[in-house]
């Protein structure tokens, strides 16, 4: 596995001398004046185009979440005489969930660093830690949903709870699908090694996982903290 | 990778960087392991600040919502800079522009919904449960 080390390092181009986009001291329009994004350097590499396409997907995913956030913000007070967020939300659990997901985002970053070193053991270990933390997060969320459903506070109780389950459940679904993707990537990396397409997929997975944490920041602030304090 | 691939690779633009890829920040404080540690630390601090703002009386109650929104935006910025390695460099222009467009749409959807639905609620005549049942 580790014999692939360095062979494909051009995909991430770590420490490449030509990658200084600023090129301080060089004016415009002279012979040195390469400008990224103006097509003068030739087409972008597949690594860049794939990751850019995935970035566009992530942004459109965030726009989809914004519709769920808008629905929740509009319906947050529409409790129909049922339980309010203040009565339902357990902030200790939310704090633990936040810590788990934040730490798993950090260990995902450590996996990226291990990938750049082409360390198979390091990458697999940090991916595993990332997956376990994500699974613990998901377990707490399912537990919370089950407890709420048992208290007659399921999604059909009020408009507020419908919007809550749709928003938080959508994020939980993303985490669950991310865990499936993570397991697939660990297996593919183990079997195929650091091949260019595996590096691209690992990079996209990293982007996905960090984006999920950004959405969770909005959820724990706007849904849980605001709901419990007002 | 075959020989043909690597020859084509020679002509590619090596100055573009993918979203989440570290290039010019690699040897600066926000790059590599120190960057992730710094981002993790800042995110933890901002999370603790959010919980304190919401749970204690440190902040004047009507201002809590503003404080929470500001802290959340700050934490998203920390994630974007330290975990997703978004920079203002010219190799990142495409990524930043795509993000800016996404933020515009998100702001339109969320703020627009709250604004319009708030006005609709205000313009609704108060109605008893009996009247509501009479509606077509």
Automatic annotation (TrEMBL), chain B:
<keyword id="KW-1133">Transmembrane helix</keyword>
<keyword id="KW-0813">Transport</keyword>
<keyword id="KW-0472">Membrane</keyword>
<dbReference type="GO" id="GO:0019646">
    <property type="term" value="P:aerobic electron transport chain"/>
</dbReference>
<dbReference type="InterPro" id="IPR050968">
    <property type="entry name" value="Cytochrome_c_oxidase_bac_sub4"/>
</dbReference>
<dbReference type="Pfam" id="PF03626">
    <property type="entry name" value="COX4_pro"/>
</dbReference>
<comment type="function">
    <text>Cytochrome bo(3) ubiquinol terminal oxidase is the component of the aerobic respiratory chain of E.coli that predominates when cells are grown at high aeration. Has proton pump activity across the membrane in addition to electron transfer, pumping 2 protons/electron.</text>
</comment>
<feature type="transmembrane region" description="Helical">
    <location>
        <begin position="96"/>
        <end position="117"/>
    </location>
</feature>
<comment type="subunit">
    <text>Heterooctamer of two A chains, two B chains, two C chains and two D chains.</text>
</comment>
<feature type="transmembrane region" description="Helical">
    <location>
        <begin position="33"/>
        <end position="52"/>
    </location>
</feature>
<protein>
    <recommendedName>
        <fullName>Cytochrome bo(3) ubiquinol oxidase subunit 4</fullName>
    </recommendedName>
</protein>
<dbReference type="InterPro" id="IPR014210">
    <property type="entry name" value="Cyt_o_ubiqinol_oxidase_su4"/>
</dbReference>
<feature type="transmembrane region" description="Helical">
    <location>
        <begin position="64"/>
        <end position="84"/>
    </location>
</feature>
<keyword id="KW-0560">Oxidoreductase</keyword>
<keyword id="KW-0812">Transmembrane</keyword>
<dbReference type="GO" id="GO:0005886">
    <property type="term" value="C:plasma membrane"/>
</dbReference>
<dbReference type="GO" id="GO:0009486">
    <property type="term" value="F:cytochrome bo3 ubiquinol oxidase activity"/>
</dbReference>
<keyword id="KW-0249">Electron transport</keyword>
<feature type="region of interest" description="Disordered">
    <location>
        <begin position="1"/>
        <end position="27"/>
    </location>
</feature>
<dbReference type="GO" id="GO:0015990">
    <property type="term" value="P:electron transport coupled proton transport"/>
</dbReference>
<dbReference type="InterPro" id="IPR005171">
    <property type="entry name" value="Cyt_c_oxidase_su4_prok"/>
</dbReference>
<dbReference type="GO" id="GO:0015078">
    <property type="term" value="F:proton transmembrane transporter activity"/>
</dbReference>
<dbReference type="GO" id="GO:0009319">
    <property type="term" value="C:cytochrome o ubiquinol oxidase complex"/>
</dbReference>
<keyword id="KW-1003">Cell membrane</keyword>
<comment type="similarity">
    <text>Belongs to the cytochrome c oxidase bacterial subunit 4 family.</text>
</comment>
């Amino acid at each position: 596995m580790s014999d692939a080390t360095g062979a494909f390092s051009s995909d991430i181009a770590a420490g490449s001398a030509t990658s200084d986009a600023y090129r301080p001291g060089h004016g415009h329009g002279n012979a040195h004046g390469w400008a990224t994004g103006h097509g003068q350097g030739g087409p972008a590499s597949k690594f860049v185009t794939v990751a850019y396409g995935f970035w566009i997907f992530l942004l459109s995913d965030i726009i989809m979440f914004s519709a769920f956030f808008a629905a929740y913000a509009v319906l947050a007070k529409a409790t129909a005489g049922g339980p309010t967020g203040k009565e339902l939300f357990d902030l200790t659990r939310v704090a633990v969930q936040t810590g788990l997901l934040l730490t798993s985002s950090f260990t995902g970053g450590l996996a990226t660093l291990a990938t750049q070193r082409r360390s198979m053991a390091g990458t697999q270990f940090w991916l595993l830690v990332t997956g376990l933390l994500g699974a613990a997060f998901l377990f707490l969320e399912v537990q919370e949903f089950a407890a709420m459903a048992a208290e007659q506070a399921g999604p059909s109780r009020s408009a507020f709870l419908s919007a809550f389950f749709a928003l938080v459940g959508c994020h939980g679904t993303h985490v669950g699908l991310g865990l499936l993707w993570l397991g697939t990537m660990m297996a593919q990396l183990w079997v195929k090694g650091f091949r260019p397409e595996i590096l691209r997929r690992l990079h996209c997975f990293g982007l996905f996982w960090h984006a999920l944490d950004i959405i969770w920041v909005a959820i724990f602030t706007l849904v849980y903290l605001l709901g419990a304090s007002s | 990778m075959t020989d043909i691939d690597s020859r084509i690779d020679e002509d590619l633009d090596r100055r573009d960087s993918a979203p989440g890829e570290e290039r010019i920040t690699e040897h600066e404080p926000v790059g590599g392991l120190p960057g992730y540690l710094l981002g993790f630390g800042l995110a933890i601090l901002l999370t603790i600040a959010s919980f304190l703002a919401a749970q204690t009386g440190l902040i004047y109650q009507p201002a809590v919502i503003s404080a929470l929104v500001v802290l959340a935006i700050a934490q998203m910025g920390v994630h974007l800079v330290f975990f997703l390695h978004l920079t203002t460099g010219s190799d990142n222009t495409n990524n930043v522009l795509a993000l800016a467009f996404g933020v515009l749409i998100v702001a339109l959807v969320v703020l627009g919904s709250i604004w319009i639905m708030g006005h609709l609620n205000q313009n609704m005549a108060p109605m008893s449960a009996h009247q509501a049942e009479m509606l077509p």
